[in-house]
Specification:
single chain; 228 residues; Rossmann fold; four-stranded antiparallel β-sheet; 11 strands; 39% strand
């Protein structure tokens, strides 16, 4: 019998205590992640994470796509990317060893789909450091779901990504026609759209709405899509 609340893992990290919980909600298991006092994600609400992959990859006209996902989390963005038959390889970059371990141990609902797919490679690395550096390879799409938003980062060191300089550095990791897509918990921010337009010829922002069972209303996240 599943306990109503069960702590599956607890790890001290440089950004705070990382906790993975499983709880029962309406008879189903729900998986939640906290970093310090902040809720990072819940398997109750994954529509926007999946739309990040769908919208980002839909903006690419090619096939045989090599895709990087920044941020592993519960795995829904990565698995949604694998649902696109054009994805040839998928590298998921995650800075916290514990998160990779959760999936390798198949603790989460989509873990098996992710790690058993031969296209998948889980990479233990700081995504922000990776895209600041000169590329040792390039990608057709880079899909990112790490910070809460462009203005609410998990760590202050992430802030430079959301500047023109940071986006320019990231763009060098993309091939011609390549796509950068970003999830945000906030409404589209005009100042960030302006920064994207300074680097990418094609830029759009999507609102992704979903029923919020906890509030009884509708919540909306954003997905930014930019293409070279």
């Amino acid at each position: 019998m599943t306990a109503r609340f069960e702590e599956l893992d607890f790890v001290e990290t440089a950004m705070g205590d990382l906790t993975l919980w499983r709880r029962s909600f309406n008879g189903a298991d729900v998986f939640e992640v906290k970093l310090g006092d902040e809720y990072l994600m819940s398997s109750l609400f994954v529509v926007a994470e999946e739309e990040l992959s769908r919208l980002g990859l839909a903006a690419h006209a090619g096939d045989q796509l090599d895709v990087m996902v920044g941020g592993l989390g519960l795995g829904y963005t990565a698995v949604a990317a694998l649902a696109d038959a054009r994805v040839h390889t998928l590298a998921v970059v995650e800075t916290m060893p514990a998160v990779i371990d959760w999936h390798e141990r198949k603790l989460l609902p989509v873990s098996a789909s992710l790690v058993d797919d031969p296209r998948t490679r889980l990479v233990l690395q700081d995504f922000f450091a990776l895209v600041r550096a000169a590329p040792n390879r390039t990608w057709d799409a880079i899909l990112v779901d790490i910070d809460h938003s462009t203005e609410h980062q998990l760590d202050p060191s992430h802030a430079d990504l959301y500047t023109v300089a940071g986006l320019t550095a990231l763009s060098k990791h993309l091939r011609p026609g390549g796509v950068f897509a970003l999830w945000s918990d906030d409404a589209p921010l005009e100042s960030f759209l302006a920064s994207l337009r300074a680097v990418f010829p094609f830029v759009e922002a999507h609102g992704v709405s979903f029923d919020n069972f906890l509030t009884g209303g509708v919540s909306t996240n954003s997905v930014y899509v930019a293409r070279l």
